[in-house]
Amino acid sequence: MSYVVWTLIALVAYAFMTTILKMSLRTIPPEAAVIFTNVMLVVMAVLWAIYRGVKVTEQMGLNQPTLLLVVAGLLLGVGVISLYMALSRGPASIVAPLFGMNLALVAVLGFVVLREPLNVERVAGIFLAAGAVFLLTR
Question: Computed over its alpha carbons, how large is the radius of gyration of the chain?
Answer without folding.
Answer: 17
